Automatic annotation (TrEMBL):
PROSITE patterns: NACHT. It comes from the Bacteria. This is NACHT domain-containing protein. Residues 291-450 form the NACHT domain. SUPFAM superfamilies: P-loop containing nucleoside triphosphate hydrolases. Gene3D superfamilies: P-loop containing nucleotide triphosphate hydrolases (3.40.50.300).
Length: 1263
């Protein structure tokens, strides 16, 4: 057997090789990884220190893809010959090459002997190669090293992993035997899908499809981009993986699509692309970046199935279940092995209240510590068959083995106090378990919370991800698996897929097919009924239950004779268990004896013979498989959406008729009001509203609109808008266009329009932001068009244009509106262009129309960027314009080129040009040349042609990286070569200047900028001149001399950034007037870039003087340009900064960089209470409405963290003025607006108001 060295990548592979050397030779010296090493990765001294053995590692990223491995190695050795000769002259006695390439052993003609022959012929000293087999055999006996690098663990290591001897061999065997028994039980439990659906048992590994997931910011205060960084690292590391994964849904960067490259542009507002969730969660590189994950998904979207699968992948390999292993894709079979522990959080909640949820007697207290570790121990003890397993065992396991802890369904902890208890305990327990050694990997699943500020795991410690909707290709993949499991013929499968493709073209069916559970139902219905499918979500479940019972009626007389009664019983049980879970903090299970007693009571109260209970029992728990037994002695609904559907049907079907004069309680409107404001009943409410008939829809619309009353729901709450949007999305009102329009107009007032795009989707359910035309999309476009003619400020204009783009993709309504508003082109050309772009009008402009648009009076850069975004053909044909794009991209730090929508190829290319210089210089994990590879695709000839324009830049990157990989360039040398080449190819540009200035800070004792005494002496590299400026921090006269030599805007920009970064203390303060003069000489683009650069200067300079105690200097700032003052905002007392701010906002035009900087200042001032928030909002309103700002320039770059916690009253004030404030303030208000008033349990409301003739209260402790 061999090991997966390729999963390590080059640096980790080198460290593994060094560790193997140390294991054999204690005197080996290991050289640092990733630094110039002169051809040495490790050394061993011999001959009493007079000689050395040199070890060098050569890592092949794709060994199986190399056609001639021997030639590859010989070429690598030949490249090293000068270094080896140099080492030999310095005393090297032997050279050992270590590689992950495989060899062949045929005498004389095998790769091993041929390479040895080349060694003898070419090298000046004896040499030897350690091939892959050599590494394998050394690694076989080094279990500890494999444990350090889990990607190297194989199935053969697992028994030892579990049974590894500790202080007591007997204790370890007990522990190991318990774990094997526990895993065996859990493997059996999770072997089938929870939603069984049909005649055959649905095996998990046969039906699983890898649903996509994407990252988004977590709850309050954000996640410091933890998930974004991890996701980027994961995706782009895939480009470096050596093994060939042709079947993987995750492609290397060389194959990235346009949108995928676009998704990672810095500062973009769109989410990173979605990728297969199991691929990500099982990947070792992803876990290097983050191993605390919260995975959110809508009802039925597959989060629990995904949790089942991820755990099962581990179990089948640990237990050596060969049939299961054979079903795994290679990438999952080869993923690092971890010990899986999966527990439902509703059970953890009960444990933390002292109740054992897994005991045979309901309500039994466990008498153990109320901690997560104790619950894990209890779970293992129960399902290992009764082994003793203690908290100390849990800590030992976690401390010595890779463990994956999956905590499923946080949303099913109904009581918010219980949920807070669970969240707090998870947080505390992970701190305790991390202290034991290895860091535990944790996945928590949940539905997105519908309550702002509800108990959630910290976004600073957990990376938040969301399951995305499945696309058509994934739906068809699932269809193929579904059909094969059912034994359908090839012709039937083709017909099924054809029908599904056809139905998914309809917007309402496409919406129903966006998650795997509803897709399963659709497939069942297509298989049974053909193309006749329901339009609505509730109707889909109605039809499914009907079809299921039709089939069971043919097989079972119990179902055939008592069909309606069995449906009623399931509806009743759905309501009862859901209400009980909320009211009594239970887990949603019911003990067997309690279920029988409850059925007897129900039959008696409904007037049915109670002796039917034994006859009906098989129908309830055997034939109609909605109820299952997962914990011995209890029953529960197999999936929560089924429980919620039946609960909704019970509420609707048993609602009272209340005519005038004969009023009765428990009517449909009363019940809607009782459940609609309760977030735990959100999915029930959606099913319930879907039951309403056409004659009831106008009244339902009235009830929905009543929820917006602040007295009922809390001020400007997210939840009523979310609920109303979900009901529109579910096609609830479609039979009544008037009801649709009524709800749309209520939802999308000033606050609602901002809510659709400004609020964090994680706050209210990761909602889809698109309505179909009939479900409100057409009315929404009309509303947006009415507003857009009077809206020109950045964030509001963006929101309206995005809304139109989403809901009028064909552009028919927008084109008609533009035809009726022709004066817009002359009066507001940029706004016109942005709106015209969403209709496709921009892309169809003639060359003459393009020229007219480009050569109008307004900013050419902004106009050009508009044409780029929407892909005008005339732009592609012009080399002159393409070159202009390059100059714009490299000269403008906050470029106007925006990619808010799906970009044109040229817009994508322009952003690659912008991003690449920074990526090349940064120490990040995305190789810059990978971006350019996206333009190599034969499928996109237009994109490929764009590469020719930037070929120089790519050549720079590739040549420099080649030198860097050979160790010829130090970090400083890399920065020097890169910036100089950039300047030679493109002339002076801001990107080169700022990168050179940052590079000047890189420590390098051999590079001090000596000789480059003058700042503008072009005979020396720019970085050397800036390096020299850094050494002149205290030399006032030198700075004055350089100031006197400024002749051009580029000189001014160079002096300004050097002075701001490197002049020290008194010198800096005494020359602020000169600095101001230079800033005013700079062109506006470079001035704005300088202001943007000032924000990061502190990270590498630290010399900008602190002005808190410099009163005289503050007086000096009174007379300088606002741009100059903006450079020092973070360095002066907040009160003084606010005073300057008030004056500048009132009197001066704001550039985008100034606006962002000032808005950040307001956040700090408001959070520190140095300025009244009302005054803050007034200033922000002025900033937001500044006409000089680019029409599509957002002010949303300030983090929530800068605000701190704000009051509900302030949130109210912000939302009262939502239309006049930028996104980040509106988002802030949605973030902190607080949850709705604490609602009463639905069971209490029902009992108090007499909804039912009989109230079914639990007679014994619930589970």
């Amino acid at each position: 057997m061999t090991y997966d060295y390729e999963a390590l990548l080059d640096e980790a592979f080198q460290m593994v090789c060094q560790a193997l050397l140390v294991a054999e030779h204690k005197d080996v010296q290991c050289l640092p990884v990733g630094m110039p090493d002169g051809g040495r990765d490790a050394l061993r001294y011999v001959d009493d220190g007079h000689g050395i053995i040199v070890y060098q590692v050569k890592f092949a990223r794709k060994p199986n893809m190399i056609k001639d491995p021997l030639k590859w190695l010989i070429n690598a050795i030949d490249d090293e010959l000068p270094k080896i000769a140099n080492l030999a002259s310095r005393g090297a006695r032997k050279y050992v090459l270590i590689t992950n390439m495989s060899t062949s052993s045929h005498l004389d003609i095998g790769k091993l002997d041929k390479l040895n022959k080349h060694f003898k012929k070419s090298l000046p000293i004896p040499a030897l190669c350690w091939w892959r087999d050599d590494l394998d055999r050394r690694l076989d006996n080094n279990f500890d090293l494999k444990l350090r690098y889990p990607a190297l663990l194989t199935g053969a290591d697992i028994p030892r992993l579990i049974m590894e001897a500790g202080p007591s061999l007997t204790e370890e065997r007990r522990r190991a035997t318990a774990l094997i028994a526990y895993l065996s039980h859990q493997h059996e439990q999770d072997s089938t899908l929870r939603f069984k659906q049909a005649e055959v048992e649905s095996q998990l590994l046969d039906l699983f499809v890898d649903v996509p997931m994407t990252s988004f910011h977590g709850p309050a205060l954000g996640a410091d981009d933890l998930q974004g960084r991890a996701f980027r690292r994961f995706i782009f590391t895939k480009a470096q993986i050596t093994r060939y994964r042709s079947k993987s849904r995750l492609r290397p960067a060389a194959m990235l699509t346009e949108n995928e490259v676009h998704g990672f542009q810095p500062g973009g507002r769109q989410q990173p692309p979605a990728h297969a969730a199991a691929d990500v969660l099982l990947d070792p590189f992803f876990h290097q970046g983050v191993n605390r994950v919260v995975l959110e998904g809508a009802p039925g979207q597959g989060k629990s199935t995904l949790a089942q699968y991820v755990a099962q992948v581990q179990r089948v390999r640990i237990l050596k279940e060969h049939a299961g292993i054979a079903k795994l894709p290679d990438r999952h079979r080869d993923s690092p092995v971890m010990l899986p522990i999966k527990i439902e959080l509703r059970d953890i909640a009960m444990w933390l209240r002292g109740i054992d949820p897994w005991a045979s007697s309901p309500g039994e207290e466990h008498g153990r510590a109320k901690t997560l570790e104790s619950a894990i121990a209890g779970h293992i003890a129960r399902y290992s068959g009764g082994f003793d397993f203690a908290v100390s065992d849990v800590h030992e396991v976690v401390g010595n083995r890779p463990v994956l802890l999956i905590l499923d369904a946080l949303d099913e902890v109904a009581d918010l106090d219980d949920r807070l208890l669970v969240v707090d305990e998870i947080t505390a327990a992970l701190v305790r378990m991390d202290s034991t050694g290895q860091r535990l990997s944790v996945i928590v699943t949940s539905r997105p919370t519908a309550i702002a500020n509800s108990p959630t795991l910290s976004g600073k410690k957990f990376a938040y991800f969301s399951l995305a909707s499945i696309d058509q290709s994934l739906a068809l993949e699932y269809t193929s698996k579904w059909a094969k499991v059912r034994g359908l013929s090839a012709n039937d499968i083709m017909q099924l897929q054809r029908t599904l493709r056809l139905k998914l073209q309809s917007s309402h069916t496409a919406e129903l097919g966006k998650n795997t559970m509803q897709l399963s139902i659709l497939l069942n219905l297509i298989h049974v009924r053909g193309e006749s499918l329901p339009d609505k979500r509730t109707a889909l479940y109605d039809t499914y239950v009907d079809v299921f019972l039709n089939r069971e009626s043919e097989k079972s007389p119990v179902v055939r004779d008592n069909r309606e009664l069995l449906v009623s019983i399931h509806q009743f049980l759905g309501y009862y268990l859901h209400a009980l879970a909320e009211k009594d903090k239970s887990s949603g299970r019911i003990e067997t004896s309690e279920l029988r007693a409850l059925l007897v009571e129900y039959l008696e109260n409904e007037g049915h013979p109670t002796e039917l209970v034994d006859y009906l029992w098989s129908g309830v728990v055997e034939r109609v498989v909605a109820l299952v037994s997962r914990v011995e002695g209890t029953y529960e609904f197999e999936v929560q959406p089924l429980r919620e559907y039946f609960a909704a049907r019970y509420l609707y079907d048993t609602a009272s008729y209340s005519p005038s004069g004969h009023e009765r309680a428990g009517t449909k409107p009363e019940r809607f009001a009782g459940i609609a404001g309760n977030t735990y009943w959100l999915n029930v409410t959606r099913f319930y509203a879907g039951c309403f008939s056409v004659g009831e829809l106008r009244d339902l619309a009235d009830r929905v609109c009543d929820l917006f009353d602040p007295e009922l729901s809390g001020y400007h709450m997210l939840f009523p808008r979310s609920l109303a949007f979900f009901l529109l999305e579910d096609w609830v009102f479609n039979q009544s266009p008037k009801a649709v329009n009524q709800v749309v107009e209520k939802v999308f007032d000033d606050v609602g329009i901002r809510w659709l795009f400004a609020s964090d989707p994680s706050l209210d359910g990761q909602r889809n932001t698109q309505l179909s035309p009939k479900s409100g999309g057409s009315r929404l476009v009309a509303l947006f068009l009415e507003r857009i003619g009077h809206t020109r400020s950045g964030d509001q204009h963006i929101a309206l244009c995005n809304g139109i783009a989403i809901h009028d993709p064909a552009g028919a309504m927008t084109r008609n509106w533009l035809a009726d508003n022709t004066s817009w082109f002359e009066d507001y050309p940029l706004e016109w262009a942005h709106l015209a772009g969403v209709t496709g009008l921009i892309s169809r402009m003639t060359p003459q129309e393009s020229d007219r648009f480009l050569n109008a009076d307004a900013s050419r850069e902004a106009r050009l960027s508009t044409l780029l975004i929407y892909g005008n053909e005339h732009v592609y044909a012009s080399r002159e314009i393409l070159n202009e794009v390059c100059r714009i991209a490299l000269n403008n730090r906050s470029t106007a080129i925006s990619l808010r929508r799906t970009p044109s190829p040229l817009a994508l290319w322009a952003n690659v040009v912008i991003y690449t210089p920074w990526s090349a210089f940064a120490t990040g994990d995305i190789p810059p040349e990978n971006f350019f590879r996206a333009f190599n695709s034969d499928e996109n000839p237009r994109i490929a042609s764009l590469r020719k324009v930037s070929a120089e830049l790519e050549a720079v990157l590739l040549s420099i990286n080649a030198s860097k990989s050979k160790g010829d360039l130090s970090p400083f040398g890399f920065a020097r070569t890169f910036t100089q080449t950039l300047l030679e190819q493109f002339g002076f540009c801001w990107s080169a200047l700022e990168i050179a200035n940052i590079g000047a800070s890189i420590p390098d004792q051999n590079e001090r900028g000596a000789g480059a005494g003058a700042l503008f002496d072009s005979s020396f590299p720019l970085i050397d001149r800036l390096r020299n400026a850094r050494r002149r921090g205290n030399q006032k006269q030198w700075w004055l001399e350089q100031y006197s030599r400024i002749e051009s805007p580029s000189d001014a920009a160079t002096w300004a950034i050097a002075f701001f970064s490197w002049a020290r203390g008194d010198v800096h303060l005494s020359l602020i007037g000169h600095f101001d003069d230079v800033i005013q000489r700079m062109d506006s683009t470079h001035r704005d870039s300088l202001i943007g650069a000032a924000a990061v200067t502190e990270q590498y300079s630290g010399r900008v003087p602190d002005l808190h105690d410099a009163g005289g200097s503050l007086a000096e700032l009174n007379s300088v340009h606002s741009s100059t003052r903006a450079m020092y905002l973070e360095k002066m007392p907040l009160s003084a900064a606010v005073d300057f701010l008030k004056r500048d906002v009132a009197t001066l035009a704001l550039t985008p960089a100034l606006a962002v900087r000032y808005t950040r200042l307001i956040a700090r001032a408001g959070a520190s209470e140095d300025i009244d928030w009302t005054e803050c909002l007034e200033i922000v309103r002025l900033i937001n409405n500044t006409k000089e700002l680019a029409y599509d320039q957002p002010l949303s770059r300030t983090s929530y963290r800068e605000f701190g916690t704000v009051s509900v009253d302030l949130c109210k004030e912000i939302l009262d003025n939502a239309w006049e404030l930028p996104d980040m303030f509106v988002s802030l208000a949605f973030m902190w607006s607080g949850g709705p008033k604490r609602v009463r349990a639905v069971q209490d409301i029902a009992q108090e108001r007499g909804w039912f003739e009989h109230n079914y209260l639990p007679r014994r402790s619930s589970r």
